[in-house]
Specification:
heterodimer, A: about 210 residues, mainly alpha, 7 helices, about 75% helix, globular, B: about 475 residues, 19 helices
Chain lengths: ~210, ~475
């Protein structure tokens, strides 16, 4: 079950790298949020209240609230597609593929606590983080960069699964807070950018340079 | 109890600033709260060092240096902010005052934090409080600067979290108890899984290095410092960066405890030299006085991590330089803010002949310039000298030569820009508006920077020595 969810996660990474439609892009990020919630729930054999609460919070915030906010944002500023990314969709897919392969190899070489179960988690985490980076660097719309950042965070959260038993609640809570506040603020800024430049294309944001 | 008070004072001030409805009354809260904070800080520093750091919030010798730096800087800036905001009374300063004070609260939390997670949350709070400050002017450029700042800070913060996860996993993989309190981490570090510990250090260095503004993660800095009001530039360049440096020092201590110090030093050196080189490159023919200060800040962050990498006198120098750099940057940003206000521009094409047209701001700006490039008799001279001593005492002659060469290049390029600002201009150009209230606080900072160079009070000297000994694990 856990393996299936993790593989789905990597599959969604590829989908995010390859799609140009904004709605699908946001849906990917939301679905990863849902997957994360389910993963948090199912990674332990026995039922623990604390983990269940975290799982539920993740599911609601990452899977429902944030995508809803992003959907609202694109409806207000009327964008449907990511046009002309700095790196084309096929090259970014290729890069993502190479990155995922490298993550697998790298994860196998690291000393893990439970090599059997942890390898796939670590590899998925690295691959997702890398996908997030690729998206942030190569996409031009402010909102695509926010989604890229969220995917990066999803990757970090996947790694956090390994630490659910040992890390304090604070760190778990910190993740959720970060996502919520980050997107909230970025959402406000997108509104500001929109109002001032009448577009949310970050290529307009290049008056400040040497 | 005292740590909580130090965090609660500015936090309560922030809440009050948010609730007060008058634009004229609100700025008065700033000096009131920061000086209360300074008094509490001085009282906290007068208490003996704790034998062992217990619990979530403890002020250890390292935290003391940062707390003092931040508190002094904010006090100086608040004296300036009060008349500045009264002059700009038409624009609402509610968000600015509330965010400045929240930032002070978050920075006090950073100075006290003894837990990796708590440190991370506090750093995140400082980053969030910074965003509205950069946006104070509400211009399109300010939006752009804030967007870059937020995107890069969020990535930096996210990597900081990932690094903290790696650290916890290093403990688990080494079969150690996964306690994330710094004293435990240092005690248990030798038993950690070393590959994971190294990975953790690299990710943490990049994450917190982004907040500190080390090259190549520095790109938000010139924009943010350039577009923000001078006072915001001052608290970011002096306070935020010092807090990020504190985090990097703590993680370096863990690496040293695990006998991985050589690797940590190598990474710190690479980033440090790269920062200095980037600063030197972009300072050449710099046209904008605030962007010039931003690159100078990148340079000095580089110097701090080089000092940390060297150990011995280098660490002492770095600790002292945290204080000197912060106060000098405060002086420079406020003086530059005065020039910006007087001339209505920050480009050296329009800010000309300042010696004649705005003599007092010009002299203060010049004093700040002399101090920051490390000329005697100002504070930074002593700390830079200590860092260089640390480099040569450990026989890193090639690195020492690079650093000296870069310092010299930066001195010439900054001098070029600064002299263009101060001299020249048509003889008939009229004098510009200079307010006494905006000069006095800057002059006070200049006096402190000068005093630190000629006479280091005994308690302060002991504070710095204790911090250096603590970082080296000798205490």
């Amino acid at each position: 079950m856990v393996k299936l969810l993790l593989i789905l996660m990597v599959f969604l990474n590829f989908y995010a790298l390859g799609t140009s439609r904004m709605r699908a892009f946001i849906q990917v990020c939301g679905m990863q949020g849902l997957l994360l919630g389910m993963l948090t729930f199912s990674i332990h054999d026995h039922f623990v209240w604390r983990h269940a609460a975290v799982a539920l919070l993740t599911l609601v915030i990452k899977g429902i609230i944030i995508p809803a906010m992003l959907f609202r944002a694109i409806r207000e500023v009327r964008i449907r597609r990511e046009v002309e990314p700095i790196l084309g969709f096929v090259p970014s897919l290729l890069l993502g593929g190479i990155g995922t392969a490298l993550s697998m190899i790298y994860a196998e070489r690291l000393p893990l606590v439970n090599p059997l179960s942890d390898t796939l988690v670590v590899a998925t985490s690295f691959s997702t983080i890398l996908t997030g980076f690729i998206l942030i660097v190569t996409r031009q719309k402010a909102i695509s960069q926010v989604v890229g950042y969220l995917i990066l965070e999803n990757g970090i959260f996947v790694f956090g699964l390994l630490l659910m038993q040992s890390t304090p609640f604070l760190v778990e809570l910190g993740v959720l807070l970060d996502v919520f506040v980050g997107v909230f603020i970025m959402g406000i800024i997108i509104n500001y950018i929109q109002r001032t430049f009448s577009s949310i294309d970050t290529t307009h944001l290049e008056t400040l340079k040497e | 109890m005292l740590p909580l008070v130090l965090i609660a004072i500015p936090l309560a001030g922030a809440a009050a600033a948010y609730l007060v409805s008058s634009n004229r009354v609100r700025p008065a809260l700033l000096p009131l709260v920061t000086f209360a904070h300074l008094a509490a800080t001085l009282y906290a520093l007068s208490l003996p060092n704790p034998a062992v750091a217990e619990g979530w919030l403890t002020l250890d010798p390292l935290g003391r240096v940062i707390l003092l730096t931040v508190s002094l800087l904010f006090s100086g800036c608040s004296l300036y902010a009060f008349p500045y905001l009264i002059l700009h009374v038409t624009r609402s300063n509610r968000i600015l005052c509330a965010c400045l004070l929240s930032m002070l609260a978050a920075m006090s939390a950073v100075a006290h934090a003894q837990h990796v997670g708590f440190l991370w949350v506090s750093m995140e709070a400082t980053a969030l409080a910074g965003a509205p400050l950069i946006y104070f002017r509400r211009t399109p450029q300010a939006i752009e600067a804030m967007w870059k700042y937020l995107l890069l800070s969020s990535i930096g913060i996210a990597l900081g979290l990932l690094g903290s996860f790696f650290l916890a996993y290093a403990a688990m993989a080494g079969g150690q108890e996964a306690s994330l309190f710094f004293p435990d981490l240092i005690a248990n570090a030798p038993g950690f899984s070393q590959p994971w510990l190294r990975a953790a250090f690299v990710v943490l260095l990049i994450g917190y290095g982004t907040k500190m503004g080390l090259a190549p993660m520095h790109t938000w800095k010139p924009d943010a410092y350039g577009e923000a009001p001078g006072i915001v530039g001052a608290v970011l360049a002096g306070g935020l960066t010092s807090c990020a440096f504190l985090a990097i020092v703590r993680f370096t201590m863990i690496m040293n405890a695990a006998d991985q110090g050589a690797i940590a030093s190598r990474f710190l050196l690479i980033l440090g030299l790269m920062s200095m080189a980037v600063a030197a490159a972009f300072l050449t023919r710099q046209q904008d006085i605030k962007r010039m200060l931003a690159y100078s800040s990148i340079e000095h962050m580089g110097l701090l991590v080089i000092g940390l990498a060297m150990g011995g006198a280098g660490i002492y120098g770095a600790m002292l330089h945290v204080l000197n750099n912060a106060l000098t940057k405060g002086l420079l940003f406020l003086a530059a803010g005065n020039l910006h206000r007087s001339f209505g521009s920050k480009s050296i094409n329009e800010v000309r002949g300042a010696f004649r047209r705005a003599p007092r701001s010009a002299v203060l700006f010049f004093v700040g310039f002399l101090a920051i490039v490390g000329s005697p008799p100002f504070g930074p001279f002593l700390s830079l000298f200590s860092i260089l001593q640390g480099i040569f005492a450990t026989h890193h002659f090639a690195i020492g030569a690079c650093v000296v060469l870069l310092l010299w290049t930066i001195f010439i390029s900054m001098g070029h820009t600064v002299l263009r600002v101060l001299q020249g201009g048509a003889a008939s150009a009229p004098a510009v508006d200079e307010r006494n209230a905006l000069i006095t606080p800057v002059a006070l900072l200049a006096i402190v920077v000068l005093l630190l160079g000629v006479w280091l009070p005994e308690p302060l000297s002991r504070l710095i020595h204790e911090a250096a000994a603590f970082v080296e694990g000798r205490s």
